[in-house]
Each structure stands twice: as structure tokens, then as C-alpha cells.
Amino acid sequence: MNTPYKYERTETVEELISEYSAIPDGTGSGVHVSIAGRIMQRRDQGKVVFGNLQDSSGRIQLFAPSKSTPNFEAFSALNIGDWIGVKGEVMKTKRGELSVKVEQWEILAETKRSFPDKWHGITDPDTRYRQRYVDMWVTEGAKKAFILRSKLISRTRKWLEEKEFMEVETPVFHPIPGGALAKPFITHHNALDADLYLRIAPELYLKRLVVGGFEKVFEIARVFRNEGISSRHNPEFTMLELYEAYADWNDIMELAENLIEYLAVQLTGSSTVSFDGKDIDLSAPWRRASMIELILEQTGHAISLETPVNELQNLCKQYDIEVESSYGPGKLILELYEKTVEPNIWNPCFVTEYPKEVSPLSRDHREKDGLTERFEGIIAGREILNGFSELVDSEEQMERFKDQLEKGRSGDEEAMGVDADYIRALEFGLPPTGGIGIGIDRLVMMLADVQTIRDVVLFPTLRAEQ
């Protein structure tokens, strides 16, 4: 079939609805328009065919009388899903349905596959995610989360730029995996004959830029982690990371809660949003509570880094937590927190004072030995963000890297390596700095009120199709 190379339309469906909804029932407007989209429903009533044409902005009825519609039989035989261009008068039927009376029409692209029924959508979730190009037409609300996601990223950029943050781009290929505790994807560069790693976080490069004199930087970064797939995890996902010179964790917590409250109001109209049938109050300030304090609240057990390791191990076993002999008190406390506390936090809470043992890039707490000025923002039982006062001492950072190297040699696939160039950068001087990483996908899930990350990632990672 020969189809046109181009089609000139004069309005979108949304514009038609906005401009002509007030015309009286059973009358024409005298205005002739050209519109285009998919035919998503067709009702043949003998001498008249009604169809619904849908473009990216909305849906409008087509009114095609047999007497005046050219190629009426062909119009009556259009397949659901065919792309068509239509020219005609804007009118309202006697029943008050805003319509376009078909005076000219042509096929722009025909569907060669059976389109799912608009009213029932796609019932198989795997098909929805694998054939997103169909899902967005036939599943009610499927586009909404992606429109919200686009607006969230746009408004985030604007908000940060107004605060004089500069957006940057850093490498996706890293010679050494770093910036987070995660298992990387490995690839090989033939010309360099070297293994490279898809980044698990842009953190170390962004902090190099602070060393280089850029005092406020951010990146909306695609990152990759070779880990499991679940309702909250996709192997590639999007993070906002930002760093601010002369700031500490208190400044960054304040920035994060204000940003997320702003986004909620901008995108939903309120700082209180509904998620999974319950309200979440995102208005600042959020609660701040230490990890050890929250464990006491939830379990009644008063523990600390001074608690004997065997007591912490026994407590973990009491909550069916598998532990390894290499776990020190900090790691055991983190495991207890993640099992007993994190899933039960609903309204936003900054969980503070993470153990140094599990925070290789965080600065030591200025008052409490063995703890760091690290926090995570937990909402609805899940981590949304992670930040800290950044470790600026090159010698201390080297010792932390060496500890990570030993963990890696002992079988920890998520351990970092020694990034000698990053140490060299720190030796040139990193001023007091605060930083944060925010999971864009999980934030969109919450604001769009969807329960799986696959509903906010356009093309999620799936098993090979059989």
C-alpha cells in the first residue's frame, strides 16, 4: 500500500475539544479541520459509521454518513489501529458528542496485526511490557506515568538550575566500578584491550568535578547494576545525583525534602499523595531518626556498635536474618534495620547515622565514633534516596578502599575496588561537600501511584521472548 510521506494537520484532538466543546447539540460549526491519529473504535450503523480517532492528546468521534463520505465501504472496513488522516467539519451530534464529519480521509499507516480491544486492554503483563508500543494505546492510564516522569525530570532540572546547580555528563564506562555497593556489568573495549564496567553510580566523577572547581553539580544519570529484577529493581535505572561544595548532610537533607515536596505539588497538586491506598505526607520537614533509635522503637532492643557481635548475630537469627561470619557489628545492625524497620516506615523519614563499616564514601560522624554522617530517605517502606557528608580525607578514603578490596577478595561481588585516580583527586583537595542520589524511578512510582517499576520504565529489561 502506498501511503503519504507527510500529512498536514491543523489541530490536535485536545485543541478541538478545548475550542469547540461549547457548540450546540445537533449543529455544525462551519469550521473545517484536518486531524490524524489511530482509529480505535468503529461502529457500523448501516448508512452511518461512527469511529473514534485517537492521537497523543485525546480521542474524538468521527461521523461518516454513507452519502457524503468518499470511499465509504473502505472506511467501513478500516481495522482497529489503522492510522488515518481526516478532513471535515467540526460538529456535535444530536446526542451531544463532539465529532468531525468525514469529508476526506486517507490511510497513513495500516496495522498488519490484530489490535487489542480498547476497552479490555492487554491482559497479559509480559505482553504489556514487551509490546509497549501497543500497551500505550489500549491500556487505560498507561501513558500517565510516563508523562508524569517526563515532567518530573524537567521540573527537577529547572528547580536545581534556579539554585545555580550545573548539569553535567560523566562517563558511562568506568575502568573501576565505584560510587556504590553493587555488582557491575562488565564489557570489553577491543581497541584498548581492557575490561570496562557500566557505571553503577556517577558519584566519584561528580566529586572530581567539585575538586575541579564546579561547586554545585548534578547529573540525571542512567546507571546499571547486575542484580535481580523485582517490582522495585530493573538492571538499568535512573538516578539524580548532586554535589554541593561547603554543604554537609543537614543542608542536603533540607534540599532533598524541599525538592520532593515541590515535585509532589507541581505534579499532583498537593504535598499529600495517595500510594497503594494510603496517604503519604511529603511536606517538609521530614522526620530525622538514627538507625539505632529506630531499631529500638521497632523491636524493643537497645543495641549499639559496642554490643557484642555474638549478641547481634543471635538477634539477627531471631528475625530469620542470614548472616556471615565476616559481618562486623555495623553490618549486623544494618541487616537488623533493613529487616525490622525499613519496611514499616510509611511517611518520609531520614534514617541517619549509618555505621562506618557499610558506608565507604561517607564522612565520619563528627561526634559519634564508628558512625557516619550518612542518611537514607525512606518512604512507603522503600529507599528513595541516599546521601551524606562526603569523605574528603584521601588517606582515610584509601583505607576504606583497601577494606573494600579485601571484601571483594573474600567473595563480596558488590565491593568496590581501589580507584587510584580518585584518591589522587582527593589529594588535590575536596572542600567540605554534601551529596545525594535520588532514585527517579521509585520517586515516579510513588507520585504516579503504581506498584511496579515496570510501569514507569518505558522498555524494562525482560527475559528473552520464547
Give the biggest beta sheet: 8 strands, mixed
- Strand tally, please? 18
Low-confidence segments, given as residue ranges, are: none
Helix content: 25-40%
Q: How large is the count of helical segments? A: 13
The order of strands across the largest sheet is 6-10-11-18-17-16-15-14
Q: What is the average per-residue confidence, as pLDDT, rounded to a whole number? A: 94
Molecular shape: elongated
Distance between the termini: 31 Å
What is the strand content? 25-35%
Radius of gyration: 28 Å
Class by SSE composition:
alpha+beta
In short:
With 466 residues, this protein is α+β, with helices and mostly antiparallel strands.
What does this structure look like?
The protein is α+β, with helices and mostly antiparallel strands and 466 residues long. The chain has helices at residues 13-20, 72-76, 125-130, 132-138, 142-162, 203-211, 249-268, 291-299, 309-318, 329-340, 394-409, 420-427, 440-448, and strands at residues 28-44, 48-55, 58-65, 83-92, 98-109, 166-167, 173-174, 186-189, 194-198, 216-224, 236-245, 272-275, 278-281, 287-290, 349-352, 374-379, 382-389, 433-439. The strands form four sheets. It has an eight-stranded mixed sheet, with helices on both faces. It has a five-stranded mixed barrel with strand order 1-2-3-5-4. The chain is elongated. The model has no long low-confidence stretch (mean pLDDT 94).
